Amino acid sequence: MATTTAPGRLIGSSVRRREDPRFITGKGQYTDDITLPGTTYASFVRSPYAHARITAIDADAARALPGVRAVFTGKDLADGGVNAIPTGWLLPDLRTTDRRAIAIDRARYVGEAVAVVIADTPAGAADAAELVRVDYEELPAVASAMEALRPGAPLVHDDVPGNLCFQWALGDAERTDAAIRGAATVVRHRIVNQRLIPVAIEPRASLASHNAATDELTLWVTSQNPHVHRLIMGAFVLGIPEHKFRVISPDVGGGFGSKIFIYPEEVVVAWATRRIGAPVKWTAERRESFMTDAHGRDHVSDVEMAFDAGGRIVALRVSTVANLGAHLSLFAPAIPTYLYGTLLSGVYEIPAIHVSVRGVLTHTTPVDAYRGAGRPEACYLLERTMDVAARRLGADPAELRRRNFIPPERFPYQTAVALVYDSGNYVPALARALEMVGYDRLRAEQAEGRTRGRYLGIGISCYIEACGLAPSQVVGSLGAQAGLWESATVRVHPTGKVTVFTGSHSHGQGHETTFAQLVADELGVTLDDVEVVHGDTGRVPFGMGTYGSRSGAVGGTAIHMSLEKIREKGKRLAAHLLEAAPEDMEFAGGKFFVKGSPDRARSFAEVSLAAYLAHSMPAGMEPGLDATSFYDPANFTFPFGTHIAVVEVDVDTGRTTVLRYVAVDDVGNVINPMIVEGQLHGGVAQGTAQALWEGAVYDESGQLLTGSLMDYGVPKADMLPSYETDRTVTPSPVNPLGIKGAGEAGTIASTPAVANAVIDALAPFGITHIDIPLTPARVWQAVRDAKGRS
Amino acid sequence: MYPARFEYHRAGSVEEAVALLGRYEDDAKLLAGGHSLIPLLKLRFAQPGHLVDIRRIPGLAGIGEEDGAIVIGAATTHAMLQRSEPLRRRLPIVPEAASQIGDAQVRNMGTIGGSLAHADPAADLPALMLAAEAELTAIGPGGSRTIAASDFFIDLLTTALTPTEVLTRIRIPVPTSGTGSAYEKYPHPASRYALVGVAAMLTMSGGTIARARVAVTGVGTHPTRERAVEAALEGERATDAVLAAAAARAVEGVDLRSDVHGSAEWRRALAIAHTRRALARAVARAGDV
């Protein structure tokens, strides 16, 4: 689209998103929008049982239906050379699971695929899927991780004794024990971080087509990281060489982590297209999304936070049981360990921390990264515990936090759980948030309201997150089976127009705008002169994709590095054309000029053309003007901030209304403030929903009771207030752009802010904790129980 | 989300619809907006062989006044109820409740007849019909009959309609002056259906409550008229204490649902709290008249 903007300072301005006109006029190209001649459609037969032996599959009736091309079972895939879907992060002594795209012999969660039907139409495939007769022998199932750890619990995989996939620990156990023993006050409680379901607006989809002439396989798939899909599917699952396998992730309508992973359905369509000699497409129905998209969170934690007599934290001990579901999803082992335990110092100076985590298999949908991925669990645990501690110590929750902040002079700060925070200054964000919300006045209003049965609550959350994932050497040493650098090719065309090929992937983040802002500023061209290409292994260099708030900090820096190379080459070429010394050249406002003589200049377009004409080049310089860079960050980045929620609780019904929401964030330098705000808004909505409405519930037999949008409470705009936001800016020293990342901050900070507010509102009843989601039924019950006690 | 195969019939008249229902019997379903039926078809929970669309039957949609009553055609959409001037003047509780149904798309397609005949236990309009003492007209093979709202809702998704009857119109008496009404709803955060919905219509006379009609939806298998609440109000002065005491009798004897969203006890508390609020608002509005 045309967004005619004069060259100049675009970084830091709220340029409207260039991709939006296409999305809001229905011109987006999502995977399901793509149909090739002769496309056939897959429909999966799924287990209605959480745990069952598959004793027989009779597909004769399905095969006999007109238009049905094939019915495949798990055995057909295995016989056809399809391997198990691997785990991409290996912890020491990790017990991996043999995860098949289609179950063989045993189904291990409700919704696991047991057969696939491929037919000429979607309706025909659905009709035939109903005709596939599967004989099941139902087996005992276990949905709760705590139950799965009990002796005698049904085993999810026979080769994982006790359903225990891993035991992992971090920190100094002895020092922590000693500090807790000697502490003046120890706050102990068990808290649950409930299971969530991602609910991206666009359901997962895949379309595969095999070109028999070139033997090239093309897969269109809803992926946050198409190169990762290609590598793992090609090299490990399907045995297809990478140069014969192209993965395209076109417009993608939201991911929140759930589209990082390799799922059974894309494996099946990619394999089946060659078998039946026609393109095969699958698009999830919403109920399939609920049952099969990787879920998030699902922790039960025992927490001990110890304080000295002055209200300073002296130690934190955490023991967590993480529900991993029925199989290890791609990055499942990393989320409740390295992305969680390492964040348990939060923004606080805690001299001794010990965390141990048990990863447990259950007969439920696999669990993996969901927006924030480990960091929201850590933040919720800390911030909820800080509020419990404040009540116990008789301290104001804001003051207790301030007292325990890592002071600015301690940076770089080595935490007790491995991370080194490069920078941070936490008091200003807290002070600003308290000022914006009018903290003292609100406390007075709260006290007055309580005298007449009005229950206001104020909840504070001071968060930190580690993003800009991640230094490859570090993650490699921790078990990652991949590097976490990013790539960028910047190609300058002879006319001075620019195409950027980024390994990052936008599925809502707005890269086509923010990356263009970066390029336009650094090359002195207009936004319209820049095209951003992503999501196609056939066009962009190998890249790691988008998750972990990494695109700006890591992907943006890779682009910046390529731009520097281009400017450097441009300077040398311009110097040659102007018969000046390269070291005398400057570049500004889209012109290369001789220092002190702005008239002796060549425009960027002139230099671009000269580079491609190559009629006159400096000795040894190659023609052309493009550059590729791979940026591997030296450290994580550490955004932080303070969020404050103000709620009113109707104790007669248990209903919570969020009255106000104040967010002060420090995400470092910002390319596009509007886009950052948008990320925060969405994140706060998601995190508030975890505090109040969302939660995946399984019954004891492993049936998902919240399997539709009629039951599972995703947030809607009218359930939320207008947010009041501000920022402090502490540029990250890690990357040259000073960017930290903003994609997950809202989700991480908001859950404890809202939960703390609700429980603060209930303080007059002596209630110190209720597990999230704080649904009206739970809140009402807690108030009733409290009244019964008093 | 592909329904099983079915045949679609667009009925040109109520008689034609009745004839089609007679011909296909249990294998036919009426389509009157589809916001309950079509999701069931897409999930294949319902697989009727025939759909009889009655939305375009001439004269089946519309709102009129006759003999001290408002008459609403069964194919009238929720959006039409929401915007109707006669309803806003004479029966404001109907637009008040209709505006809280689902979202704008649901209100533009969903119909009052479809909602009542489907009898979802958490639908909004059934409670109104009970409180407003509506009369429902159904046409079947043997002609037309009138069913009082209090006789209409029998059980979960079950009404007094026979399989070959079509609900055609709803007649609601216009309340006498001095009547105030209110609909208090707590929408489920996911579905927007009523976790509880309380319809109250109170007629004040000389400082006392002359007539009280209260009905509750959302908590049991079907909406209920709250006669104990009504009895506790009639003849009393509308003090806070009287309203609270009356509200405390809400959903007495109702078999309350208990599920993943909350316990039966919580639903009772919800019904009582919302009844109290509906009564208070109805009293305040009665004063406005």
Give a verbal description of the structure:
The complex is a heterodimer of chains A (790) and B (289). The longest helix of chain A is centred in the last third of the chain and has 27 residues, at 551-577. In chain A, helix 10 (375-393) packs parallel to helix 19 (745-761) and helix 15 (511-523) packs parallel to helix 16 (551-577). Chain A starts with 19 loop residues before the first helix and ends with a helix. Chain A is built from 20 helices and 28 strands. Chain A is globular, with a radius of gyration of 28 Å. In chain A, 29% of the residues lie in helices and 24% in strands. Chain A has 790 residues and is of the alpha+beta class. Chain B is an alpha+beta fold and 289 residues long. Chain B contains 12 helices and 14 strands. Chain B has helices spanning 14-24, 37-42, 78-83, 85-90, 93-98, 104-109, 112-118, 125-131, 149-152, 227-233, 240-247, 264-288; strands at 7-10, 28-31, 50-53, 63-66, 69-73, 135-140, 143-148, 153-155, 158-159, 166-173, 179-187, 194-205, 208-217, 224-225. In chain B, the strands form 4 sheets. A 5-stranded antiparallel beta sheet of chain B has the order 4-5-10-6-7, sandwiched between helices. The longest helix of chain B has 25 residues, at 264-288. Chain B is globular, with a radius of gyration of 19 Å. The model of chain B has no long low-confidence stretch (mean pLDDT 96). The chains are: A alpha+beta (790), B alpha+beta (289). At the A-B interface, helix 4 and helix 20 of A face helix 12 of B.
